[in-house]
Specification:
This protein is mainly alpha-helical. The chain has 14 helices and no strands.
């Protein structure tokens, strides 16, 4: 009964808001979203949560479910990425329970996806994979125009990290077939395709047509990046693989440049770190800031 009363109050507030007030609130939401993404990659936790709480309240008042649940979901992801994963999972569960109680389909999708993300960060890959698959199925069933590319890309990345190259390529292909895929996700998909093809050869898995497939994926990725003035965090890894197959000296120079940039030290690398996995795949050794001669 209390939940129903709250919903009625929100609906009445929206109905009685003037057009000017609605426009101002929409502008506030846009500004708060910009601030949210500005603080998201930083360690300014107090600022991030202050902004996201304001964003949740503003979006709730005008019934903007997407903004509301994305802000809430980002709170969980933020905690997970900053080594507070149990708290992140707790936030994701609260989000999912709230959405389920109000039968909000976008909220249920967001809670499912975010929970899978946190489980992946915690190393629970079986449940993370199952969660991503459920989120994709739910989104397809309830929001046919929404892209589920992010879920497919998470599955692609996990398959790549587990040395399942063909599976990684398959999930990347599925991501590209989604409707309304954002440019960054297109670049991510091409990156995973390039890395998965190259890695399969590195492990002598019998992948045929390697050079032509890699060159095709690489050319498509490069053309898209240049035409859209965009790139992703996997760019250096793709370039390493490109040089590694044709010019080992250049590949080693690129690896040295990566290690210079991030200043990783022996024994300090996180086994789940993308760079560590890349160095292990190429050289068979963990990332080390000490260059080999």
């Amino acid at each position: 009964m209390k939940r129903i009363s709250s919903v009625i109050i929100v609906l009445m507030a929206v109905l009685y808001m003037s057009p000017a007030a609605m426009a101002q609130t929409a502008a506030d939401i846009q500004q708060l979203q910009s601030e949210m993404y500005r603080y998201f990659p930083t360690s300014e936790r107090e600022k991030f949560f202050e902004v996201t709480e304001k964003l949740k309240e503003a979006s709730r008042m005008v019934g903007d479910d997407h903004a509301f649940y994305k802000a809430w979901g980002n709170q969980a992801i933020y905690e997970g990425r900053n080594q507070r994963r149990s708290h992140g999972l707790q936030i994701a569960k609260q989000l999912h329970d709230y959405a389920t109680a109000s039968n909000n389909k976008f909220g249920i999708y967001t809670g499912t996806y975010v929970s899978a993300s946190i489980l992946g960060m915690m190393g629970d890959r079986p449940n993370a994979k199952a969660g991503f698959k459920r989120s994709i199925e739910y989104l397809h069933a309830n929001f046919s125009d929404e892209s589920a590319a992010s879920g497919y890309l998470e599955l692609s990345k996990m398959a790549y990290n587990e040395n399942h190259s063909r599976e990684a390529i398959l999930y990347a292909d599925l991501a590209l077939k989604e409707p309304n895929v954002v440019p960054l996700h297109i670049v991510n998909a091409r990156s995973f395709q390039c890395m998965a093809v190259a890695d399969s050869v590195q492990r002598n898995s019998g992948y045929t047509n390697y050079l032509s497939d890699f060159d095709n994926y690489y050319a498509e990725r490069k053309a898209f990046c240049e035409s859209h003035h965009i790139n992703d965090s996997y760019n250096m890894q793709v370039e390493v693989w490109k040089f590694n197959k044709r010019d080992n000296d250049t590949a080693n120079q690129v690896i040295d440049r990566i290690l210079d940039d991030v200043a990783l030290h022996v024994g300090d690398a996180d086994p789940s770190d993308d760079l560590t996995l890349l160095c292990l795949k190429i050289t068979g050794k963990p990332a080390s800031h000490e260059k080999t001669t």
